[in-house]
Amino acid sequence: xxxxxxxxxxxxxxxxxxxxxHRAFAEQTDIALQYDALLAPLDGFEATVAGFRAAGxxxxxxxxxxxxxxxxxxxxxxxxxxxAGAVNTLIFPANPGGLVEGDNTDGAGLLADLHRxxxxxxxxxxxxxxxxxxxxxxxxxxxxxxxxxxxxxNRSPDxxxxxxxxxxxxxxxxxxxxxxFADIPPAPFDLIINATAASLAGEQLPxxxxxxxxxxxxxxMAYGATPTxxxxxxxxxxxxxxxGLGMLVEQAAESFWRWHSIRPETEPVLxxxxxxxQSR
Length: 280
Ligand code: NDP
Fold this sequence. Notes:
The chain is 38% helix and 18% strand. By secondary structure, the chain is of the alpha/beta class.
């Protein structure tokens, strides 16, 4: 019998760093596993998952655009996946008839990375850009860290407002507000998180300059060999910056823990991933 099967499923998937990260974690912790990238047709997510499971698959990471479909496929979900409305980690029981469990490790990944960077959240003013799956996944842990204020801004303001409404019960009165980019209060924020897909398209967001000071951390969930447009914009006004490579490694570590009950060290894996990315 071969090593237990794991993988990441998405479309496209060729760019995914998850196989490199999980293989590095496995080597570090002496766990035998096979971790592959699976390209699922846009109309073939469930069939691809079923095939993987039939071949003995034990777990899958799920990426764009299948996180909502993964949520629907699960027989049981963790409370954080339930609240996020999206699943990025599937856990298949050894018993082929057993229920598939779904988890969402994006929020834990972001919080772990902010902790690694030494970013305080308690009592701070946070601006969260975007109202998609990633924003939904990080809202609960961000609110649980007691920021003074959390403003969600999105290109489609109604989506930001609906999202804020969904999480209002977890917030203190006046703590959580939402709107379009034009509604952003033009005053400095301590932390600005870009969770839009604009960076992937290389597009600049219409943000007021007044939201930045040299003490602001501009954090882009996207990452690449060079800084994103959003990070370059923030840098040009003297703000501090960080990209989402650390979040990627930390959310992978949380998935790894869910599958193997062991927490890998993230720092060396992040360092080597950064070197690989920059040498391209
Ligand atoms: P979704 O497709 O669910 O949401 C996309 C969001 O981006 C929406 O709010 C959308 O606004 C907005 N958007 C898209 N294009 C533009 C644009 N040109 N200008 C302004 N807003 C735009 O994506 P996700 O939430 O899953 O992912 C968002 C980003 O976060 C991606 O870059 C993804 O790679 C990254 N990510 C990184 C992770 C990591 O570990 N580092 C983990 C998860 C995500 P509208 O509602 O108006 O359409």
